[in-house]
Amino acid sequence: MKTKTFDTSKEVLDKLQFAMIKTQKGNMSIRLFPNEAPNTVANFASLAQSGFYDNLNFHRVIAGFVAQGGCPEGSGRGGPGYSIACELENNPHKHLKGTLSMAHAGRDTGGSQFFICFAPQPHLDGEHTIFGQIEDKESLKVLDSLKEGDIILTIIV
């Protein structure tokens, strides 16, 4: 599968600071990390802006672990038809409650699937690219309410 890179110029990244994941349970506001994970953030933004995530579901929700979405098949096996490289070096962030991270099936195989942590997951640090963080209590309440099959209405970046 082809590895894809995106425009990570300062002009582009300056516009990619926040995302809103709108779900049937409410909205989650996420601060993005374009300086630490520029290609991952640009990929997420590109997919969101194209409508890729519209009406997909959280296909994997494990209490105390993660809510995972972004699979066009709803099975956990699908993606956008390309992969992106992991951005682990010089990324100081840790997997905490509300952390947005790129799912993959092995190093440098991420694409469209992402997960948000329900609790700290230190065993994932240095393995998955962290590219955002929920910082407000209302968004964390929405996160905590998610169940498998809940719908992502749209993502706005």
Report on the architecture of this protein.
This protein has 157 residues and is an alpha+beta fold. It has helices at 10-13, 38-50, 137-145, and strands at 18-23, 26-32, 56-61, 66-69, 99-102, 114-117, 130-134, 151-156. It has an eight-stranded antiparallel β-barrel with strand order 1-2-7-5-6-4-3-8. The chain has a single domain, classed as Beta Barrel (Cyclophilin), CATH 2.40.100.10. It has three helices and eight strands, in the order αββαβββββαβ. The mean pLDDT is 97. 41% of the residues are buried. 17% of the residues lie in helices and 27% in strands. Strand 1 (18-23) and strand 2 (26-32) form a beta hairpin. It is globular.
Helix/strand layout:
Elements: H1 10-13, E1 18-23, E2 26-32, H2 38-50, E3 56-61, E4 66-69, E5 99-102, E6 114-117, E7 130-134, H3 137-145, E8 151-156
Antiparallel strand pairs: 1-2, 1-8, 2-7, 3-4, 3-8, 4-6, 5-6, 5-7
